[in-house]
Each structure stands twice: as structure tokens, then as C-alpha cells.
Design goal:
The chain has 176 residues and is mainly α. It is 88% helix and 0% strand. The protein has one domain. The chain has six helices and no strands. The two termini are 52 Å apart. The relative contact order is 0.08.
């Protein structure tokens, strides 16, 4: 009966947990690749390539989940979907706030006629700053996370060092 309950529980909640883990891993990969991809886009656009050509070049050079998504966006535009719609589709497929912000900025730049190069530069700078802030937050959180294991380790060391001495004193009859 217990085994059947575990199987039912695993069958009901297992697929969702597995799928959520895959989605989370994918979002983490996109989030980590975005600043580097933006830097390459900035360099390519400032070197004279158009946005679509720069994006195609970056997709060729950089492997990964984000490149796959950009490749899908490029394919959509090649079959006749408007770039704005393809960007909106990409935004809807992903759940990464940084990518959504980038796509929104690009759609607004295109709609209002703002320089794509300048928009890319601003977005890349923001991503770099955000990456640095996240690294600093993780560095500040590390000592707090180490307190628990250190306390346990110190307790184990005391037991290992003082345990034999306490047993010797107890056997010698000094305390009773």
C-alpha cells in the first residue's frame, strides 16, 4: 500500500517537477548567455552589420539555448513574420525578465526610430551591471550560508577531540 502511494505520488507530481526543473535550467542558461550575446551584437552592429545580419552571425558563433531561440526568431522573419511579431513570439516563449526587457527595448527602438546600435549598447551595459550585482549578492550571501556547516563542523571537532578525554576521566572514577 505504501509503495502504491509512493508510485501514485511520483506519477502525479514527478512529471511537473521534472518539467519545472528543465524550464528553470533553460531560463538560467538564457540568463547567463544574454550579456555575452548582447556584447557580440553590439560589436557586430557597430562594425556595420544590420541587426538581422548581426543576429544571424551571433547565432552561428555562439552555441546554446539563447542562440536556438534567436535562430527560431530569424527563421520566423525569413518566412514572412514581421520582426516585431517574431520578437513578441520569442518574448512569449521565454520567462526571463532580462530577455523580455531587451526585446521590449528593441521593439520600441524599431517603432520610434531610435538607433539600434545605441539601444544595444545601453542594454549590454545594463546586463553587465546586473551580472555584477548578482555576483556581489552571491558573494555577500556566501558567509551566511557557511555558518550552519561551520557550526556543525566545530561541534564534530569538539566531540572528536574531547570525547576520548571525557571517557578517560569517566573511567578513572574522578566524577563518581
Amino acid at each position: 500500500v505504501l509503495m502504491l502511494g509512493l508510485l501514485v505520488f511520483g506519477g502525479v507530481f514527478g512529471p511537473d517537477a521534472w518539467l519545472n526543473r528543465i524550464i528553470n535550467d533553460r531560463n538560467v542558461a538564457i540568463r547567463s548567455q544574454l550579456p555575452d550575446v548582447l556584447d557580440l551584437l553590439v560589436i557586430s552592429v557597430e562594425a556595420g552589420l544590420g541587426f538581422d545580419a548581426a543576429l544571424a552571425r551571433v547565432v552561428k558563433v555562439v552555441p546554446g539555448v539563447l542562440s536556438d531561440e534567436f535562430h527560431r526568431m530569424i527563421q520566423e522573419t525569413r518566412v514572412g513574420v514581421a520582426r516585431r511579431t517574431a520578437m513578441r513570439n520569442l518574448r512569449d516563449r521565454t520567462d526571463v525578465d532580462e530577455l523580455r526587457g531587451f526585446l521590449l527595448a528593441m521593439m520600441q527602438a524599431e517603432a520610434f526610430g531610435v538607433s539600434i546600435s545605441r539601444t544595444l549598447r545601453v542594454q549590454a551595459d545594463e546586463m553587465r551591471i546586473k551580472r555584477r550585482q548578482i555576483a556581489q549578492e552571491k558573494a555577500h550571501a556566501a558567509p551566511v550560508k557557511l555558518i550552519g556547516p561551520l557550526v556543525l563542523l566545530i561541534m564534530v571537532i569538539f566531540i572528536v577531540l574531547l570525547g576520548p578525554a571525557v571517557l578517560s576521566i569517566q573511567e578513572s572514577g574522578l566524577f563518581g
